[in-house]
Amino acid sequence: xKVNSWNEWGPLKHVIxxxxxxxxxxxxxxxxxxxxxxxxxxxxxxxxxxxxxxxAANAQLDHFTKVLTDRGIRVDRxxxxxxGKPVSTPEWTQDSMFGCMPGRDVLITLGNEILxxxxxxxxxxxxxxxxxPLIESYFREDKEMRxxxxxxxxxxxxxxxxxxxxxxxALSFDDxxxxxxxxxxxxxxxxxxxxAADIARFGKDLFVQLSLVxxxxxxxxxxxxxxxxxxxxxxxxxxHPLHIDxxxxxxxxxxxxHCGERTADEALVQYFKVNDWEVxxxxxxxxxxxxxxxPCSRWLSMNTLSLDEKTxxxxxxxTAQIDQFVDLGFEVIPIPxxxxxxxxxxxxxxxxxxxxxxxxxxxxxxxYGRF
Length: 371
What we know:
Blueprint: E1 12-17, E2 24-25, E3 47-48, H1 51-70, E4 74-76, E5 87-89, E6 92-94, E7 107-110, E8 113-116, H2 132-141, E9 146-149, H3 164-169, H4 173-181, E10 199-202, E11 205-209, H5 216-225, E12 230-234, E13 248-252, E14 255-258, H6 266-274, E15 278-281, E16 305-308, E17 311-315, H7 319-327, E18 331-335, E19 351-356
Parallel strand pairs: 1-4, 8-9, 11-12, 14-15, 17-18
Antiparallel strand pairs: 1-19, 2-3, 5-6, 7-8, 10-11, 13-14, 16-17
């Protein structure tokens, strides 16, 4: 047992894969907007995802787990809570939780450290408990492991802009993107907030997206907590930014995949190019929209899991993305995973690296502009 992972492409030895059991359409809260009347959940309602969706998602998660274990990769699974229960702190009550499929949102491994993110949804405040039995066992087994948790946020009304969603959803796409560029979104700067899935790991360099769940205070906390890293704040031309792993995806040293629909800052692109990285625009996604009851975008086509620098898992129906990876020299493992999307994401979202054969390396020795 060893906790160690510095990047997204080192040979994978140990990983957590999530579960779909008990996942909820969250009860209303300031941080999120859910309105799915055609699927039985108009705005203001909440409840469990249908049993048939849970069974289909778990079948694909179990298949994915078998593919990994058949390749000699250790796979652990979280322990679901009763996500339909109300939860509270002394300052608020939330009528339901969410689930434990997308562990990538909650945890990140940085070298020998496992860090628990703050989370920005009240419905996900207690989600770390699903992973605590695993983390406790790692802590017992690996005497060199560091176990850290970012400050648990209060998530009072001071952390959110009142009336944000009614105003924001009434805007045009271009106006929404302009608000994103100014980081004029639902979160205030009252306290540090971030989801782990807004962090892309490139050895010494970490690229952290400002989004609907990550604010500047959260990035500042990461900078102070990780003084040996270079922590970069990034923004893309995305109307609803939520996690970086379907926008800017490290594939191997010198190669990053970019969602062309979400414009990248030219300084960011040049920072990569002056350090001899190739920025490749992702192939078109096959699906026009995400499946019913999914908060994700169709760009889950990019939400892949690298097993090493030459091997990558891709959603099986995303044939254009598969062909692109083959042309880039990868062995592609097609994984049926579209039924998992309503539970919070794709292949990368569903996993947490615990061990990759990797070292703390500087892949960007040259500075450029603000980077």
